Amino acid sequence: MTPIDHLLGIMATLRNPDGGCPWDIEQTFATIAPYTIEEAYEVADAIERGDFDELKSELGDLLFQVVFHARMAEEQGLFAFDDVARAMSDKLIRRHPHVFADEDPQITGPAQKQRWEDIKAAERQAKAQTGVLDDVPVGLPALARAAKLTKRAARVGFDWPSTDEVFEKLHEEVAELRAEIAAGDLDKAREEMGDLLFVVANLARKLGVEPEDALRGTNAKFVRRFEFIEAELARNGRTPAQSDLAEMDGLWNAAKTAERA
C-alpha cells in the first residue's frame, strides 16, 4: 500500500458513520474551507522561517485538506481523489505544450508567459467565463486579490503607464481619506481606506512585489522590534504598559539600529 493510499484509507475511516470520528463526520466543504486556508498560510510561514522539518509537517497537513475535500466529494458522488490528481496532471500537460507537445521547447521569458496566459484564457472561454475578471477567486486575501484584479485588467490595457500615475492616485486617495475623517463620516472613511489599500496593492503589482508577502515581512519586523522593546523594559522589571510612547519609540529606534549593525 502506498503512503497516499494509506492516507486515503485513514480519511475514509474517520468519515465512516459506523465507528468514525464524530467531528470529522459532521464536517462539510464550507466548515473545512477555513482550515484549508489556514494550512496554506502555515506552509508559507514554515518557508518564511526556513524550518524545513516543519514544512514537511505542514505540507502533510495541507495534503490532508485535499484528501478531506476529496473524500466528502466522493461520498456525494461528485468526484474522488484520483479525479483531482488526474485533472491536475491534465492541466499541467495542457499548460506546458513546450514540454509535453510539439511546441518549441526553447521558449522562454515573455513568450512563455504569454503562451501560459493564452492557454488559461482559452480554458476560461471553454468554461463560458468571458469576463476578464471572471475567475479571480473571491476567497483570496483581499490584498492579494486586489493585485490579481489589477494584473488581469492590465492585460487588456486598463493600467497606468508608470508608477508616477499610481503615486498621484495614492496621494489623491490619502487626501480623500483625510477629508472623510475630518468630516467625521466613518462609513465613507472606511470606503476611502479600501480605495487606498487597493491603490497600494496596484503599486505593489507594478513593482513586481506580492503585497501579501511584503506585508507579512513587515508584520514579522514589527513583532521582532516590539519584542526588543519588551525585552529592554523587562531588564528594569517593567512592561510596555508601565512605559510611555516616547520611551518605547526610543527603544524602537534602538531596535532598528541593532538590526542594521
Automatic annotation (TrEMBL):
Enzyme class of the recorded protein, top EC level: hydrolase
One GO molecular-function entry: ATP diphosphatase activity
Catalytic activity: ATP + H2O = AMP + diphosphate + H(+)
GO biological process: dATP catabolic process; dGTP catabolic process; dTTP catabolic process; dUTP catabolic process; response to stress; TTP catabolic process; UTP catabolic process
UniProt-listed InterPro entries: MazG-like_dom, NTP-PPase_MazG-like_C, NTP-PPase_MazG-like_N, NTP_PyrPHydrolase_MazG
Signal sequence interval, chain numbering: none
Residue stretches making up the NTP pyrophosphohydrolase MazG-like domain: 27-100, 167-225
Pfam families: MazG
UniProt family annotation: Belongs to the nucleoside triphosphate pyrophosphohydrolase family.
PANTHER family recorded: NUCLEOSIDE TRIPHOSPHATE PYROPHOSPHOHYDROLASE
Protein known as: Nucleoside triphosphate pyrophosphohydrolase
Organism of this sequence: Brevundimonas variabilis
Phylogenetic classification of the source organism: Bacteria, Pseudomonadati, Pseudomonadota, Alphaproteobacteria, Caulobacterales
